[in-house]
Amino acid sequence: MKKENLALYGVGAALVLAAAYRYRQQLTEQDKILVGEVTQLYIYPVKSLKGIKIETGFIEERGFAFDRRWMLIDQNNVFLSQRRFRKLALIQPSIVNGHSLKLEAEGFGEIEV
Which of 2, 27, 56, 88 has a CA 20 to 30 Å removed from the CA of 12? Predict the structure, then answer.
């Protein structure tokens, strides 16, 4: 794709976002409708492993901090999923000291990266 096309797409996206923002600002309290309430929130640091329940989360450029930042691959760089390896559901990830990832499963010990 040419740079000119990318620039046009970027300008178009910015205009759509600006229009949406302006519309949202015009809404009154009567216009707003409660459509749901978050009662539980989970992040999944490693794709296809157990999730971690969180009370609060930090939003980063790519979504919630630590959410889906890692995945398991085999020796051929092929992604491992629960569809093929059901026991992946037994591995519990956790975040250590706000930067390290720890994986543990009953009977297999733990590893920290």
Answer: 27
